[in-house]
Amino acid sequence: MQLGLIGYPIAHSLSPWIHNRLLDQHGLEGEYQLYECNAEQFPYQMEKLKSSKINGFNVTVPYKEKVIPYLDGLDEAAKFLGAVNTVKVDDGRLIGYNTDGQGYVASLLNRYDDALKPFDKVLILGSGGAARGIFYALLKQGIKKVDVANRTVEKAQQVIEDLQVQSTSEALSLQKAEENLSQYDHIIQTTSVGMAPEINRKLISLTDIGPNTIVSDIVYRPMKTSLLKEAERQGARLHYGHGMLLNQAILAFEIWTGKSTNASEMLKAFEEKLKGE
To answer: Domain range spanning residue 208?
Structure first.
């Protein structure tokens, strides 16, 4: 199988490590390669991929939206979100998928099987592509109350309005969210704040979180972000970002190959990989 990733910059992506390991685990011959290209090169790279013998590829920033005009079809999530992170080549047709939100949900339930009860109240921090994907996946999971907080409240409101799903969700400022943290069962940080090298940054303080709150951070470098360290001091339950990365990749691999993988068996090896960097 020929698989790969298109984006910019992607030289330090962990996707080759994950997918080449999946190929080996399932006894499939092939290789996962990086197709790094800037905005000027992107159209030419897409034409090369379309005419190649590639079986599928992932898409990352800044091309998750820009790839759509090159595709022949979209799954429900990709259509709803207007963004693609996985493309399957099916009899010459390029079909786009979005596994980000579903990968997040899978990683959370793998860690906490009591998470995501219908009446849980969830707070998402951020309004970018990851926030949209997770918001959509949580509502599909049956969660009715998923609030979105952002520095610019209008952008948070846009996430809720664009998805046009029946819910009781509200858009909040970060300050307002911080003042009401005790009401949430689950807090999800979806921005790049706290990512290396600025590892001491965080969007909000968690002083007022309630007991047994689950705090997620989708940043995986470092594994334990400043936000998660504070959550740990407050007695919260932690959910790390590398689980989402691994699970969305496993879902993409299943789309390409039809083969399912036990994420928990790979998670320890992936954690050791990250710790050794």
So the answer is: 101-240
Residues 201 and 85 in one domain: no
* Residue 51: CB atoms within 10 Å: 9
Q: Which is nearest to 69 in space by CA: 89, 57, 84, 80?
A: 84
Q: What is the CATH number of the domain that holds 142?
A: 3.40.50.720
First-to-last alpha carbon distance for the chain, in angstroms, is 28
* 254 within some domain: no
pTM confidence score:
0.93
Question: Residue 81 to residues 26, 78, 85, 140, 168: CA-CA distances in angstroms?
Answer: 31, 5, 11, 13, 19
What values do phi and psi take at 37, rounded to 5? -155, 145
For 204, the token pair is: 């909000």
Catalytic residues: 64
> pLDDT band for position 184 (50/70/90)?
very high
Instruction: State the number of CA atoms in the 13 A half-sphere of 10 facing the CB.
Output: 21
Give mean pLDDT, residues 226-250: 96
What pLDDT digit, counting tens, does each position of 190-223 carry?
999 999 888 999 999 999 898 899 999 999 999 9
**Structural domain contains residue 274:** no
| 18-59 pLDDT tens trace | 999 999 999 999 999 999 999 999 999 999 999 999 999 999
Domain count of the fold of the chain: 2
